[in-house]
Design brief:
The protein is mostly helical and 136 residues long. The chain has 2 domains: 1-60, Multidrug-efflux Transporter Regulator, Chain: A, Domain 2; 69-136. Helices cover 67% and strands 0% of the residues. The longest helix has 38 residues, at 75-112. It is elongated.
Length: 136
């Protein structure tokens, strides 16, 4: 496959493939004299792995670490990376739930403050201390 074919099959653009080369995530095949680089099927598998890992929230540094563990001997290290990512995701969910509660309260206040001059949502966001948003 050429770089264009590889990118198309992986649903990325050519610049993404080149960026992964620079990052060392994807080996760059040698270029024959006067020819075009040809990528083996393994390159597509690796590129799809990178994109799937990113879709699960792994950073490129974490993807690089996972790729380096792909020798079948270090599943416990890969599990540790996965557990760390899971803890991060769970914390983000807790944070988002708190944010949802605060916004829900502020929106409800807006609905019930008809006729008043100040909007509770805008007041809370203007509160420099941030207490009005955190308290709800």
């Amino acid at each position: 496959m050429t770089i264009g074919q590889l990118a198309e099959r992986a649903c990325v653009n050519v610049e993404t493939v080149r960026y992964y080369h620079r990052r060392g995530l994807l080996p760059q095949p040698s270029r024959p004299i006067g020819g075009v680089r040809r990528y083996p099927p393994e390159a597509l598998t690796r590129l799809r792995f990178i994109k799937r890992a990113q879709s699960l929230g792994f950073t490129l540094d974490e993807v690089e670490a996972l790729l380096s563990l792909n020798d079948g001997q270090t599943c416990s290290n890969a599990r540790a990376i996965g557990e760390h990512k899971l803890a991060d995701v769970r914390q983000r969910i807790r944070d988002l739930l708190m944010l949802e509660g605060a916004l829900k309260t502020l929106v409800r206040r807006c609905s019930s403050s008809r006729g008043k001059v100040a909007c509770p949502l805008i007041e809370a966001l203007m509160d420099e201390s941030g207490d009005a948003v955190r308290a709800h």
